[in-house]
Amino acid sequence: MILIKYIFLGAILLGTSFIGVLMSKKYSNRLRDLKEMRKALNFFEEKIKFTYEPVPDVFDEISCKVNENIGNIFKEASISMNNESAGVAFENAIENSNTNFTKEDKDIIKGLAKMLGKTDIDGQVSEIKLTCKFLDVQIKDAENEKVKNEKLYKTLGATIGLALVIILI
């Protein structure tokens, strides 16, 4: 009977610690997604500047070169461009994406979507550069949040688990 009690208490401690780790992962995942979006936009900028390929083809290529979350945005936008404008397709893809972006992150990227396909190549490149500058600020904020909150959630999970174990003993 005592063995079952200790196994149960250990499971509680492990469970709450695991929950703390899961909650802390959202900060790492957001940072990863922001960096991948920055990488994708850099690739997009270079392709527009030097190859003059159509945007759907560039988006299709980008979707293969970045991680799954960000790749899905570009893939969905590429497919949607058959029925709607590039800007609308990209904006809808961002809105429907399964990423770890905050509303502010999405709004910054949607700013680029609004100008996509409405200016010449130089205008597109300058808009991408502006978006990348905004993303750099978001990346710094995400790094700060990660440092601050990741450790907090891990510690909080373990502390709550220990408190529950102590109460149940």
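^ that was protein a. below is b, sequence first then the tokens
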Amino acid sequence: MALDTETVSKIAHLARLGVDEAEFDTYVRNLSDILAFVEQLNAVDTSGVPPLAHPLDEKQRLREDRVTETDQRDKFQKIAPRTEAGLYLVPKVIE
């Protein structure tokens, strides 16, 4: 997938990145190379490969699932600015 200057400009705007006009060609080339590599990886047949959680096939050391702290919700909610029905109330930030 080859990108053009307009697409890189849009990506930079969405990512809130300041890119100099002189560097656009470099970004176009580098991002196009990255996308070409991803397409190459997608072309590899992985149907016989089981999914891995870790590449080294090591076992996870697990600890006992038990409560280690006491419930202090009431104590913390007493000092909170606003609470209701056991919940913290915060100002609306998205309209």
